[in-house]
Amino acid sequence: MNIKKALTIAGSDSGGGAGIQADLKTFQELGVFGMSAITAITAQNTLGVQAVYPMGPVAVTSQMESIGEDIGVDALKTGMLFNAEIIRAVSEKIKHYNWIKVVVDPVMIAKGGASLLQTEAISALKQYLLPLSMVVTPNIPEAEVLTGMSIKTMDDKQEAAKSLFDFGVKNVVIKGGHDEETDDAVDILYDGNEFYYFTSKRILTKNTHGTGCTFSAAITAELAKGSTIYDAVTTAKSFIQAAIEDELAIGAGHGPTNHWAFNCKRSGL
Ligand SMILES: Nc1ncnc2c1ncn2[C@@H]1O[C@H](COP(=O)(O)OP(=O)(O)O)[C@@H](O)[C@H]1O
Ligand SMILES: Cc1ncc(COP(=O)(O)OP(=O)(O)O)c(N)n1
């Protein structure tokens, strides 16, 4: 069996809804072999983040080396990177191994407000990692921080996508989960030439913990299997829609999404 391999470089969420745990569940459901390089351990549940314990940059890159020297990577994603030292070290290793299918989810703040990226690390993200990325997947607040723009309308989203493209990113996906006045959740993709729109019905639920992680992991899994960017985003959008729709009411706060739902739906369960 020629299984494709996907790597997540991200933080651990003890509650299992976001971070490494969400990524590996998504990789498994989409039929790729999942691997991880952990950047930080968070003590976290559906109520919020109780503590963050970052790894040193060498601890992160030695995990990448173990994978790079033996197993290989068909596609990778980054999630919570926490500080500028980790961003720099991860970027150097990606260049060293010439890993091309790189999805950057520029995780900044958890749903409960906890900081998952130090403010002073934002310029490192722009300078070192964005130019190496095949796809970047900010939500609206993250796109605002990266571009310095206020994003309210679809025109603003298009301008922001163009501005992110100018950082050297090859494809920009601005997610619409935070656009809460609209009935639909609309994600836009910009490839430097065209805009593409991915629209789904907005589901009214508080159980959306880890949506961004799951969505970017699904894109990564599809790219690992050889999909085009457009097809990878299409599948990721269906995956996350099913995962939010068929909700798991776990914990007292923002519950996780349901990673089984996409395959259950496909097999008529
Ligand atoms: N309530 C919702 N209903 C349907 N889709 C949603 C909802 N919330 C988020 N999404 C989708 O989940 C994905 C992640 O979006 P978003 O919530 O903006 O990211 P993040 O988790 O990084 O804040 C996107 O594809 C978005 O359209
Ligand atoms: C360890 C870890 N990584 C990332 C996140 C943020 O995940 P996201 O998918 O953006 O979901 P919410 O935080 O908005 O629920 C996280 N919480 N923890």
TrEMBL record:
EC class (word): transferase
Q: Which gene encodes it?
A: thiD
**EC number(s) on record?**
2.7.1.49, 2.7.4.7
What protein is this chain from? Hydroxymethylpyrimidine/phosphomethylpyrimidine kinase
**Source species of the chain:** Neobacillus pocheonensis
Q: Keywords on this record? A: Kinase, Thiamine biosynthesis, Transferase
Q: Which NCBIfam families match?
A: HMP-P_kinase
Q: Which GO terms describe its molecular function?
A: hydroxymethylpyrimidine kinase activity; phosphomethylpyrimidine kinase activity
What family, per the record? Belongs to the ThiD family.
